[in-house]
Amino acid sequence: MRIILLGPPGAGKGTHCKRVIQKYDVHHLSSGDILRQQRASRTELGKKAQTYMDSGQLVPDKIIIEMMVGEITKCRNSGYLLDGFPRTVPQAQALADALAAVGERIDLVLNLKIDDQTAASRLTGRRSCPGCGAVYHLENLKPKVNGACDHDGAELVQRPDDRREIVANRLRTYRELTAPVVDFYKKDGRIYDIDAGRNVDEVTKTIFEKLDTLGAS
Ligand code: AP5
Predict the structure, then answer these.
(1) What is the C-alpha to C-alpha distance for residues 37 and 53, in angstroms, rounded to an integer?
(2) What string of DSSP letters covers 121-161?
(3) Model confidence over 138-164: pLDDT tens digits?
(4) In sequence order, which residues have a C-beta less than 8 Å from that of residue 90 and are 6 or more positions away?
(5) Residue whose CA is at the smallest distance from ligand 1 atom 9
(6) Which of these, 58, 93, 66, lies nearest to 184 by C-alpha position?
(7) Which atom, in ligand 1's list, is nearest to the CA of 12?
(8) Model pTM score
């Protein structure tokens, strides 16, 4: 299955992708995670992306499209779950064109909806493990020991772009550049809206029910 998880920063895309890949046989392709790995490895791509990411702006389409189409091509024979891509209408069009060229298309777009206030409080309270990538929240999803990862005990860190002033930029960027992607997919009816303001398990249940209708396994 070829699925997109759309939604503003903090909607829970990463959280739910991790749950989906435990149950279904699909690859999780997160543009944000791939960019962060490139930064950590100090590649040319990572260096180019850094300034945009740290200020809450989008990395230019050309860079992202090349990177993500390359990753998708590697997973062609299995299914994939796209998280954070596409994020602009030109990215959505480029993805549609790349898939059409090999006779494929996206099966379903899950649109996680959430208001700005909830998104902001989720992001500013998010903490993650630099070792295994596990994600926590200061209020909603606390680790067993304050400040330490449940899995490997590493000290939890805050993402640089989760500071309050940068979060405001990311939400503005979402409204201006990513919200139109919802309309792009509404045209052909393959989008399904999900209230992502509910508790994590309820949202996961809705996502699983929808994926089951696709005959996913
Ligand atoms: P990216 O990493 O994609 O960030 P994002 O879209 O801003 O999404 P987040 O990872 O912040 O949020 P999420 O929806 O995954 O939420 P999460 O599950 O962690 O992108 C970062 C940057 O990279 C961009 O700003 C841009 O610069 C660049 N970039 C990436 N892709 C690009 C592209 N295609 N084009 C151009 N540039 C690109 O949850 C958040 C918190 O809430 C967690 O603490 C979690 O525990 C908690 N939580 C989740 N769900 C719930 C719930 N239901 N109830 C309570 N708490 C919850």
Answers:
(1) 13
(2) HHHHTEEE-TTT--EEETTTB--SSTTB-TTT-PBPB--GG
(3) 998 899 999 999 999 999 999 999 999
(4) 61, 65
(5) 9
(6) 93
(7) 18
(8) 0.93
Pocket of ligand 1 (CB under 6 A): 7, 9-15, 31-32, 35, 52-53, 56-59, 64, 84-85, 87, 91, 122-123, 126, 135, 137, 140-141, 161, 170, 196, 199-200, 203
* Spatial CA neighbour of 203 closest among 9, 38, 35, 14: 14
Which residues does the annotation mark as catalytic?
Answer: 13, 87, 126, 159, 170
Alpha-carbon torsion angle 170, 35, 16, 173, nearest 10:
20
* Cβ pair 38, 49 in contact under 8 A: yes
